[in-house]
Write a structure and sequence with these properties.
There is one protein chain. With 561 residues, the chain is an alpha+beta fold. The chain is 34% helix and 20% strand. The longest helix is centred in the middle third of the chain and has 24 residues, at 344-367. The radius of gyration is 31 Å and the shape is elongated. Bound molecules: adenosine-5'-diphosphate and magnesium ion. Adenosine-5'-diphosphate is lined by residues 34, 38-39, 41-42, 80, 82-85, 93-94, 124, 126-127, 174. Magnesium ion binds next to helix 2.
Length: 561
């Protein structure tokens, strides 16, 4: 080894390592999933780079991952012949966390082990999970294309610093050696490792091989390797052959989530366009759902070759929570981010994947209402961005929305527009709603009095985005929405002829009173009218038909406009 160097971990890494080492994970075996997942990513990257630089493959044959163990030495090692790392890359990638929002993420940690373990799972700390079971980790690597003299040895005990040195390394790729902690030596065992690989890495698209135990006279002979996983890209297999558990494991690899997804949709499209997609609805929102630079988009493959993570071109923003893979037969292998920006192929794939996602949500809502309710809690607010962004699909999106209403009592958002329509009163051809700050604030609003009296349901909207949403959602199922706090409320056929007559009469009788109130209030109001809205309250303030709503006014005030 030459030029050894000792460097400190980035503060955030130190904090994470502390959490790991104090075994936040109840599920320690996931370290292997993380390291195998990195090895598979490294193979994907090599394949991609070798499209333009075939010499990177160095003539060497098949890409694979090898897992070895030594019970006597108490080590487990994971080796790949993927892209590898240069010395600089090892320092950068294994000493810092490049992910945006890391500091934010750490600020979210509560100190409650169970909750934090969940957060860490979705943050995907990957490589550092090696320190859950190891008290020393050695990484030997050489980047594809660099000479053998430019290998790197990275090593750390996970205690604040790491060493790097330049080494001679003939093999391309990365070998990671875990020196198991006291009490964790049980992982250096073929049977145990095989079980973990089967469980978490069966879907990995390249072979994950385990060393065969040499027996009798074979002992001491050259190592024999045996593939443990199925090693075919999961999305290329026929739907009927893939088990639910496999779909779920694949999701975890893909999404860096350790909870199960709520639903998935796997489709092969043939004809004018050829592509396969596998889309998932996660069970929980990532901590950075509302960050501008949060991870979003699909993992893109072209004819099974990995092209990029987070290809954002295939789904609209309001579906940014959807995770998945799309494997295109039409795009060129040379696609770059620039090329991906536009074009008829991408456009029609985006339209189709958007429909698929909405269909998947519809199906979830229909088949598993409880899961859909869980989904709505996590992602409902994002879906409400839909009608504005995707006018063409607004009716479909509207069908997926859930609202609180006067039909319920606790303000839970569980009423679909279809439910509302099923409860329309005779003669009702409008969909009534009221917006406000909070459920507590509007549930007893005087605006609701006449609706209560007549038994007409009103949707109660209290999310910040609701007024904005309703600016784009003007009708559903051919019926228009009416904000009951606005302008003149005409209940149409819901008022009988006698009621209408009585209202007119009252208006005439009270004309003198109306004049006096107008004079008293002067410029403060635009108009004073006899209202038929109220049954118990003497008076109410209403908003003009075309004026800004209260929520919008507040948003503008806060933003200084
Ligand atoms: P992630 O996989 O989410 O990027 P990790 O903590 O798992 O985060 O890995 C950090 C980085 O270290 C990877 O992005 C990659 O650049 C590098 N790395 C880890 N393992 C390998 C490997 N086997 N081969 C090449 N690079 C690797
Ligand atoms: Mg990783």
């Amino acid at each position: 080894e030459s030029q050894p160097q000792t460097l400190g971990f980035q503060t955030e890494v130190k904090q994470l390592l502390q959490l790991m080492i104090h075994s936040l994970y109840s599920n320690k075996e996931i370290f292997l999933r993380e390291l195998v997942s990195n090895a598979a990513d490294a193979a994907d990257k090599l394949r991609f780079e070798s499209l333009v630089r075939p010499e990177l493959l160095e003539g060497a044959g098949e890409l694979r991952i090898r897992v070895d163990y030594d019970a006597a030495a108490r080590t487990v090692s994971i080796e790949d012949n993927g892209i590898g790392m240069s010395r600089e890359e090892a320092v950068a990638h294994l000493g810092t966390i490049a992910k945006s929002g890391t500091a934010d993420f750490l600020a979210h940690l509560s100190g409650d082990q169970k909750k934090d373990a969940h957060l860490i799972g979705q943050f995907g700390v990957g490589f550092y999970s090696a320190f859950i079971v190891a008290d020393q980790v050695d990484v030997y690597s050489r980047r594809a294309g660099l000479p053998a003299s430019e290998g790197v040895h990275w090593s750390s005990r996970g205690e604040g610093e790491f060493n790097v040195a330049t080494i001679e390394r003939a093999e391309r790729g990365t070998r990671i050696v875990l020196h198991l902690k006291d009490g964790e030596e049980g992982y250096a065992d073929a049977w145990r490792l095989r079980g973990i690989i089967k469980k978490y890495s069966d879907h990995i698209a390249l072979p994950v091989e385990l060393r065969k135990e040499a027996e009798g006279e074979d002992a001491g002979a050259e190592a024999q390797w045996e593939a443990v996983n199925r090693a075919s890209a999961l999305w290329t297999r026929p739907r009927g052959e893939v088990k639910d558990a496999e779909y779920q494991e694949f999701y975890k690899h893909l999404a860096h989530d350790h909870a199960d997804p709520l639903a998935w949709s796997h489709n092969k499209v043939e004809g004018k366009l050829e592509y396969t997609s596998l889309l998932y609805v996660p069970g929980r929102a990532p901590y950075d759902l509302y960050h501008r630079d949060a991870a979003k988009g699909l993992k893109l493959y072209v004819q099974r070759v990995f092209i990029m993570d987070q290809a954002e071109q295939f789904l609209p923003l309001y579906l940014r929570f959807i995770k998945g893979v799309v494997d295109s037969g039409d795009l060129s292998l040379n696609v770059s981010r620039e090329i991906l920006q536009a074009g008829p192929v991408i456009d029609s794939m985006k339209a189709a994947l958007t429909r698929r996602s909405l269909d998947m949500l519809e199906k979830l809502a229909k088949d598993k209402p409880q899961d859909y309710a869980a989904f709505w809690k996590q992602f409902g607010q994002v879906l409400k961005e839909g009608p504005a962004e995707d006018y063409g699909n607004r009716e479909k999106i509207a069908g997926l929305l859930r609202f609180a209403s006067t039909h319920g009592t606790d303000g839970a958002q569980d009423v679909a527009l279809a439910d509302y329509i099923a409860r329309l009163r005779e003669g009702q051809d409008k969909l009534y709603y009221l917006t406000g700050e909070s459920h507590a604030q509007i549930k007893d609003s005087p605006h609701l009095e006449v609706f209560r009296k007549k038994g007409i349901e009103v949707l109660l909207m209290t999310d910040r985005i609701d007024e904005w949403l309703m600016g784009y959602l003007t009708e559903f199922d051919g019926k228009s929405f009416v904000d009951i706090a606005r302008g003149d409320l005409d209940l149409g056929a819901l008022d009988s002829a006698e009621e209408k007559q009585a209202q007119e009469q009252a208006a005439q009788e009270k004309q003198a009173l109306v004049e006096r109130i107008k004079q008293a209030l002067g410029e403060e109001v635009a108009e004073v009218r006899v209202s038929q809205r109220l049954t118990d309250s003497p008076a109410i303030l209403a908003i003009g038909r075309d004026d800004l709503g209260l929520q919008m006014r507040q948003i503008l005030e806060v933003s200084g406009q």
